[in-house]
Specification:
The chain has 142 residues and is of the alpha+beta class. The chain has a single domain, classed as 2-Layer Sandwich (Heat Shock Protein 90). It contains three helices and five strands; from the N terminus they run E-H-H-E-E-H-E-E. It has a five-stranded antiparallel β-sheet, with helices on one face. Helix 1 packs antiparallel against helix 2 and helix 2 runs antiparallel to helix 3. GO terms for molecular function: protein serine/threonine kinase activity. It comes from Streptomyces scopuliridis RB72. It holds the Pfam family HATPase_c_2.
Length: 142
């Protein structure tokens, strides 16, 4: 997916401590950024939910001191990347939690909302990146 034209300037990132209270800060930062880009409210809501799940997973399931998030507006998508500094064994994957479980559904939610998502090695070989692609059709676009 390539960036082009007026979308090339729509790229932003932040880094926060790997703490539970950082998840709310990540949600607020992303919503403010996407609203500044004038993206549709529905798309903002979906993006905030997805970044909340990915950021929460990084806080709970990695040995990171810091977690970074990058958001880019591409030709037909918003791409969200959450970078951690060090992962525990195994890549994140959706699971089927017990119906009474209070957690364990985050990646199922991401999978249902994103057009695509995945996990990759982080540049430099330390940590990993979990990413999601959201179609602009979640809203009316820019």
């Amino acid at each position: 997916m390539r960036e082009h034209g007026r979308h090339a300037a729509y790229r932003s990132a932040f880094t926060l401590p790997s703490r539970r209270d950082s998840v709310a800060r990540a949600r607020h930062w992303l919503r403010d950024e996407l609203q500044r880009w004038r993206l549709h409210t529905d798309l903002c809501d979906v993006a905030v939910l997805v970044v909340s799940e990915l950021f929460t997973n990084a806080v709970l399931h990695t040995a990171s001191a810091l977690i970074s998030c990058e958001v880019r507006l591409l030709a037909e998508h918003v791409r969200l990347d959450v970078h951690d500094q060090g992962a525990r064994d195994g890549a994140p994957s959706p699971r089927s939690p017990d119906s009474r479980a209070e957690n364990g559904r985050g990646l199922l939610l991401v999978e249902s909302l994103a057009e695509a998502w995945g996990v990759g090695s982080r540049e430099g070989g330390v940590g990993r990146t979990v990413w999601a692609m959201l179609p602009l059709s979640h809203g009316s676009g820019v």
